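Please describe our next protein:
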Amino acid sequence: MTHDTIGVAIAGTGFGQKIHIPGLQHHHRTEVVSVYHRDPDKAQAIAAAHQIAESASDFNALLENPAVAAVAISTPPFLHYEMAKQALLAGKHVLLEKPMTLNGAEARELYHLAAQKNLVVTPDFEFRFVPAWQCLAEYLQQGFVGEKRLITINWLVTSRANPDRPWNWYARKDQGGGALGAVGSHAFDYVHWLFGPVKRLAGHLSCAIKERPDPKDGDRLKPVDADDTCLIMLELADGTPCQINITSVSHHGRGHWVEVYGDRGSLVLGSSNLKDYVHGFTLQAGQAGETLQPVAIPERLEFPQTFADGRLAPFIRVVNHWVKAIDRCQQNQEVSEDPVAIAPTLREGVYSQLLMDLTHQAHTQGRWLTVPDLDTYLDLG
């Protein structure tokens, strides 16, 4: 197994500066060797601020750099497909922020391209790597709740409740903006991870704040057509009903909670921390007839190091799994799958994107839609 350092370029300097750069610099196997920004002065300034050797304002030039073996992409969603495709065609592994692309067909094309090129594309689905979530997965795997009767997910936050928050790409549905893409993509991924595939779904999407000021245009109000509230009903393949309620505009939202009710017991995972979507999760468990009790998270699941920004520790775990997948790829080895802490691949990213596509369609058509089998869907490409 190789233990060489992997040279990584950064594309996307918002979330990229906050999480990707420090996370990749922290990991012992990855070295940030270049940073991309379309403005050359900003690219140079960001590189200098983070002690990165090179910068680029031409993405193709960045990909031609022999020191770059992989690219971490955290640009706005409407840029993901083209940038990831360019990176794969240039022979680079990719760490890709969610939502993967603007639609399932684009994500599916990237999946097949990565397979043809024998390259790794890893989506940044961080919740799979948070200790309390991994503990929940273990309890489910052990059959703690018995036969599931109901799953509810409430993700109610205040991040966009202020109507004065500036207009940008996030306000535009055609550029991948909205709560469904931002957090629904995570919810669909962990539903699949924890509970299995979805048989059918229905959805209602709405936008409460229909205008926001554009600071680049004298704070002139511009229209918002991306969703800020999502109500989604799922029927899982095993028949379990699942309700997902998401909003980013609740002034006093209760945070992020997942509740699982079965014939033998219940599990409640949640955090009321509205400022950090990773810090603060607790798990409660109770058998039928007993009260819910806090669960002590096993030390073996805990982060070896935590940071002020809760997103950083699980991201470093994502990087670690990405690195291991690259190692296996280079050795032509099969990627082993741990059902509790499985490293997501682009296959899981395609499924999340498919469910988002179907939610938009279900909303438009006002009806339940059947979810195709993932293998069947991938074969369509």
In short: The CA atoms of residues 202 and 365 lie 10 Å apart. The chain has ten helices and 17 strands.
